[in-house]
Design a protein that fits this description.
Helices cover about 30% and strands about 20% of the residues. It is globular. Strand 2, helix 1 and strand 3 form a beta-alpha-beta unit. It has a single domain, classed as ANL, C-terminal domain (GMP Synthetase, Chain A, domain 3). It is of the alpha+beta class and about 80 residues long. The chain has a three-stranded mixed beta sheet with strand order 1-2-3, covered by helices on one side. The protein has two helices and three strands.
Length: about 80
């Protein structure tokens, strides 16, 4: 999850999902799951399935890459 600036100037949450091999992705089921567990303001504004979460050689998340991807998604919407 990363934040990006929304059209109203506030920050919105973008969630990136990498599936395990053989797993299925049901966006509505995930949204329902999150709605049961998170306050509305904490829920992702967008959920994006990607092939692989970018990481360093030591396995740490490369959040700057995810932020860049979130920015690109905003441009294309």
């Amino acid at each position: 999850m990363v934040g990006r600036v929304a059209g109203d100037g506030n920050e919105e949450v973008i969630a990136f999902v990498e599936l395990k091999e053989g797993a299925e992705f049901d966006l509505e089921e995930l949204r329902d799951y999150l709605a049961d567990r998170l306050s509305a303001y904490k829920r992702p504004a967008q959920i994006v399935r990607i092939d692989a979460i970018p990481t360093t050689a030591s396995g740490k998340l490369l959040k700057q890459n995810l932020r860049a991807l979130a920015g690109e998604l905003q441009v294309h919407q």
